[in-house]
Amino acid sequence: MIVSRSMPTGTSHGDGEIVAPRAAAEARFGSHARTASALRVRVQWPQRGVVLVSIGGEVDMAGLPRITEVLRQRLTAARLHTAILDLSEVGFASSAVLDLLMMARHAAGRRQARLLVVPGGGRVRRVLELTGLSELFEQTADLDEALARAQR
């Protein structure tokens, strides 16, 4: 798994810090070595009080603990009012994506923060529709729409 963090302008931690994967087998950093199936997580703070967690690649039970830990950490930010979960780049979504979404929904609810989900047009949207859980989440068509809604 590759995790990338970028901080809002004016913070002291820099921009685009890469956190190394935990297993040596996951350390495929070259443009030729990274495949579309590798799990990728990127965290950004595009606006004050808004966290954007973008996930791409395969979301399955193997990567779920790491993703949920990243989400838990980000959903505890002091001034958080909106969390955006961008799943539009997910190529494979097992039932683990449902666990991820429900955890994010509960964590945001505990914080009284708004959760916006960008499911994309692929696997995640299909899983939500097939399970009948689509109505539980405030969904947007794309990231631009989610960012615009976060300003309201």
Automatic annotation (TrEMBL):
GO molecular-function terms, A-Z: anti-sigma factor antagonist activity
PROSITE patterns the UniProt entry points to: STAS
Stretches assigned to the STAS domain: 49-150
InterPro entries cross-referenced by the UniProt entry: STAS_dom (IPR002645), STAS_dom_sf (IPR036513)
Listed SUPFAM superfamilies: SpoIIaa-like
Originating species: Saccharopolyspora flava
This protein's name: Anti-anti-sigma factor
